[in-house]
Design a protein that fits this description.
The protein starts with a helix and ends with a strand. Helices cover 33% and strands 29% of the residues. By secondary structure, it is α+β, with helices and mostly antiparallel strands. Strands 1-2-3-7-6-5-4 form a seven-stranded antiparallel sheet.
């Protein structure tokens, strides 16, 4: 009888501690583990290649209603010189990353200048793409051409 009371007490304490830890540190645990729903570079490039005709038609007609339903696209923002297709992000505060692709009618790789990196800075060759790394900081922007007019990007802060 005494052993079962001790066992029930221990199990109760463990459950209460688990609930408290999740309540106060749950978000931090999720951030440390990462969001598994954020598509990686290959998935985003595949998304563009598989939906190129639909996306191009939406751009030409300036109607993104059907494109917003494509799995992997979370938000679409029409900017002056490009259209941004946000696909997800992870992190919190100064450890946040954003992923997506954009369309540039002029096939310009530097349309996010003054948005993701300072005006006047140049993107440097980085593998198959180009990047900007903040001097004396941890901000980073990377862009890589997918197909004509479409570019994969990631921003890290």
């Amino acid at each position: 009888m005494k052993k079962s009371i001790i066992l029930v007490t221990i199990i109760s304490i463990v459950i209460v501690l688990a609930i408290l830890i999740w309540r106060y540190f749950g978000l931090a645990i999720i951030v440390m583990i990462g969001d598994t729903n954020v598509p990686d570079k290959n998935e985003i490039m595949e998304l563009v290649n598989e939906n190129q005709i639909e996306i191009t038609n939406a751009i030409e007609n300036n109607n993104f209603e059907n494109i917003e339903k494509i799995k992997g696209i979370e938000d679409i923002t029409v900017e002056e010189n490009h259209i941004d297709f946000y696909c997800g992000g992870k992190g919190i505060g100064s450890a946040t990353s954003y992923y997506g692709f954009y369309f540039s009618k002029d096939n310009a790789i530097d349309v996010k200048e003054n948005i993701e990196y300072p005006k006047g800075e140049t993107l440097q060759q980085d593998g198959k793409g180009y990047s900007w790394d903040e001097p004396d900081g941890d901000n980073r922007f990377y862009v890589e051409k997918i197909i004509d007019g479409f570019f994969y990007y990631e921003s890290h802060y």
